[in-house]
Amino acid sequence: MTTMYEQKILELSKKYYEKTVALRHQFHKFPEIGFEEVKTSQTVAEELEKLGITVTRNIAKTGVVGLIKGKYPGKTVLLRADMDALNIQEEADVPYRSQVPGKMHACGHDGHTAGLLGAAMVLNELKDELKGNVKLIFQPAEENHGGAEPMITEGVLENPKVDAAFGCHLWGGIPEGEIHVKHGAAMAAPDTFAFKVIGKGGHGAMPHLAIDPVILTVQAINNMQSIISRRINPLSPAVISYGSINGGENHNVIPNEVKVTGTIRTFDKKLRYWIPKAMEETLKGVTELQGAKYTFDFTEKFPILFNDDKMTNLVQKTVAKVVGEENVKEAPEANMGGEDFAYFAEKVPSSFFFVGISKDMEKPVLHHHPEFQWDDKNLLTVMQSMAQVAVDFLNNNEQ
Ligand SMILES: [Zn+2]
Ligand SMILES: [Zn+2]
């Protein structure tokens, strides 16, 4: 049985490959950033409607949902793609280069969107054999604000109720032809912080009459480094990085205050909330010592992405049919990047996997880089894998 689907999915993926490539090129030429994916989502909706798939538009502004109803009753599987691009001027030498100044698909989301449309074409032809439903989610704004959470709030996990969710990312850190899965924590919570050290400005020549927020900021940042190096188990990965420090304008003036922003990355829920507390304690200690004041804000962004063991086992088995068992690997470590697929994974058993795109691991493809590019042929892997995962989830009783 399984082998039969494997063959069919391969044949159908080949049948729709050219169409999928053309769609990828179109998305790539006209990139749109988070919550502005108007043309992209219109194309997505139109392509789904052409197939006779039920479409709901404008979920979380620009999100689109397609529903393929299988002939037989069963479960509902969610497949997710993100549609947004980035504010980057493209420098890649490709014929389908971005036509929009300052905007670019530099993360591969054009491939996720086209690849899921390709999978939809494949699955739609198999619907008379499917037990249950496939919900196709095209979400906005993965890169910045996050489109997954508002789509869930607007009900995409209901009617019909979703039993499991899958998604993938084209990935520069993996050789082309390989797929990596990751059991458990797969991607970090990419939270942010902002703090202010409020001192008392004065003349640079007379520091004793001022409270210097520059020196206190330097001390605070230095002390915060030892939160990671001295206060956390070295086997628990975590990052504190500073993205901006702003204070003062003149060489001989001590400013009133200094503002700092940055990001905290964690894979552990306890650490996620302990680190900002420890940072604030440090800041409090340093500033109080010299009579300065402070403010400290921690903002939760996406949750930690936890892959469900059973669903990840299923992906592992399933994608082996696409790229061969020897090319499916367990990711050696979790990824410090964030991913708002995590919101789906919080609600239903889920697995998010990584499709390799680098031809030379000495010079791996860099995401969010002006020269980011990858070979169209990886679309075949994406559409085939997504279709196969859906079919195996719905029609196999292994889970
Ligand atoms: Zn990205
Ligand atoms: Zn991305």
Automatic annotation (TrEMBL):
Report the domain of life of the source organism: Bacteria
- Please give the cofactor(s) recorded in the UniProt entry for this protein: Mn(2+)
Q: Where is the Peptidase M20 dimerisation domain?
A: 193-269
Query: Keyword annotations for this protein?
Result: Hydrolase, Manganese, Metal-binding
Is Metal-binding there in the keyword field? Answer: yes
Pfam families assigned to the protein according to its UniProt record, in alphabetical order: M20_dimer (PF07687), Peptidase_M20 (PF01546)
Manganese is among the record's keywords: yes
Q: Which GO terms describe its molecular function?
A: hydrolase activity; metal ion binding
Query: Residues that bind Mn(2+), according to the entry?
Result: 107, 109, 143, 169, 368
Write down how the cofactor binds this protein: The Mn(2+) ion enhances activity.
Q: Which PANTHER family match?
A: METALLOPEPTIDASE, PUTATIVE (AFU_ORTHOLOGUE AFUA_6G09600)-RELATED (PTHR11014:SF63), PEPTIDASE M20 FAMILY MEMBER (PTHR11014)
Similarity annotation? Belongs to the peptidase M20 family.
Q: What is this protein called?
A: Amidohydrolase
Annotated source species = Natronincola ferrireducens
- Lineage start: Bacteria, Bacillati, Bacillota, Clostridia, Peptostreptococcales
